[in-house]
Amino acid sequence: MKAVIQRVSRASVTVSPGGEGEVTRSIGPGLMVLLGVGPEDGEGDGDYLARKIVNMRIFPDRQGKMNLSVLDRGGEILVVSQFTLYGDTRRGNRPSFNGSAPPEKAVPLYEYFVGVAEKLLGRGIPTGVFGAKMEVELVNDGPVTIILDSREA
Fold first, then answer.
1. For all residues of the chain together, what is the average pLDDT?
2. How many domains does the structure of the chain reveal?
3. Does the pLDDT at position 145 exceed 90?
4. Residue 47: how many other CB atoms lie within 10 Å
5. In terms of residue numbers, what domain contains 67?
6. N or C: which end of the chain has fewer CB within 10 A?
7. Helix or strand or coil: residue 152?
8. Residue 3, Cα to own-chain centre: how many angstroms?
9. Model confidence at 18: pLDDT above 90
10. Predicted confidence band at 143 (pLDDT cuts at 50, 70, 90)?
């Protein structure tokens, strides 16, 4: 699994499922997580990334040092599926997405990751809708952006 984590002062995702209306989910201060699932990933990858993200110390303490986690700060997390994290641009100018897991594998693992993160955080986590057209807005705080890959753990 791959994740791009951004510390945000606010973030939202607007979903247009099947062209029927729009649903917006938003958070205040916390983390915006773009999550991609690879074909070799399993629940262990979801466990690893969820623990890492919820406990990652990227929020400032009273001295201004990045020493606190989203859990310590009582912050929120917004998770959006992002198969394009597996885009391969080594050949040509159009990315190949053959490195991402097919939906029948990716959806359950995406949902598993969200469930584990919710348990660790102690509350629900708003998400986008897998495979839907979405618009993401965020205000990156810092800016702080971290890239994680469970295969590089």
1. 94
2. 1
3. yes
4. 16
5. 2-152
6. C
7. helix
8. 6
9. no
10. very high
- Which residue numbers are catalytic? 82-84
C-alpha distances (whole Å) from 133 to each of 7, 11, 15, 112, 117 are 23, 17, 6, 21, 24
- What tokens appear for 146 in the block? 């971290």
Contacts of 41-48 with C-beta under 8 Å, sequence gap 24+, read 41/1, 41/101, 41/105, 41/109, 41/150, 42/109, 43/109, 43/112, 44/150, 45/1, 45/109, 45/150, 45/151, 46/1, 46/109, 46/112, 46/113, 46/116, 47/116, 48/1, 48/150, 48/153
Task: Give the SS3 label for residue 74.
Answer: coil
pLDDT at residue 20 in the model: 64
We report the CATH number of the domain holding residue 14 as 3.50.80.10
Q: Which amino acid is at 50?
A: A
* CB proximity list for 126: less than 8 A, separation 6 or greater: 13, 25, 26, 27, 76, 78, 79
